[in-house]
Specification:
Strand order of the largest sheet: 4-3-2-5-6-9-7
Oligomer: single chain
Number of helices: 12
Strand content: 15-25%
Mean pLDDT: 95
Order of helices and strands: HEHEHEHEHEHEHHEEEHHHH
Bound molecules: S-adenosylmethionine
Low-confidence stretches: none
Structural class: alpha/beta
Distance between the termini: 63 Å
Radius of gyration: 21 Å
Shape: elongated
Amino acid sequence: MKKEEMLSNPRVTIDAIKKYDFTFQKKFGQNFLIDDHVIDKIIAAAEITKDDTVLEIGPGMGNLTQHLAENAGKVYAVEIDKKLIPILSETLSSFDNVEIVNGDILKTDIAELTGGARLKIVANLPYYITTPIIMSLLENHVPAESITVMVQKEVADRMAASPGTKDYGALSLAVQYYTEPYLAANVPPNCFIPRPNVGSAVIRMKIHDKPPVEVKDEKLMFSLIKASFGERRKTLQNGINNFPDLDISKEEVAEALRTMGLDELIRGEKLSLAQFAELADVLYDNSK
Ligand code: SAM
């Protein structure tokens, strides 16, 4: 496909919107990418080659999909908005390696859809459900080697944040437990139609073969993390004690923190991933 005929050319997207009489649905977080350079950066960050099977979440009209189809072996594109499906059939008609699926990614059995292939997941994510999508991909151990996504800049900063910083929280810890995040590009609002109100960024997450820390009970560790960041100004003791899913007293937390050589009144935002894993192991052992 000639570059000037692709939807990443703003004129082609504007013409397509008119031709199909398409109206943007705010509830689906629709902001289409109209910048070749940004798309090139996404493809490069995801290291897409003809050997790859790609899962695209939310293809929209196909702006990114056309480039993925040119570079990958196979592309599965899952789009929630049924009005976009006939449009995608036309904008992707010159490619025979794209499978368009009408559905909600949060309700899609990805392994079944893609036949268990090891995936590279790529998306310009709908911002209203960025975190649920990322968490569901990570927690369900989707068969992927990397996830490369456009997200709000502020969310990208939270994903890559270090302990003790203002952006550090449950999302940073989950992303860093399962993956190695890398901020590939900052993207201004004028690269989209319509323009979002916020800055965006491309983040690539390489999924670890093995998490960087070992923990006896992964679920307990993530419950402790959620409890610790539920109310930021609370001490770890109070956060954990008040968390409905956990039956752990303040004294048990204090004792575990003493065992670890930490201040009893420490807040969760000061603990590294390794320290959360250690805390989970100490509490796990003490409960036996
Ligand atoms: N990939 C296109 C592009 O870059 O131009 C569109 C990106 S737009 C930010 C997000 C897309 O995700 C929209 O097409 C929207 O309809 C779709 N979407 C929103 N929620 C979804 C969901 N739960 N499952 C699948 N697609 C979804």
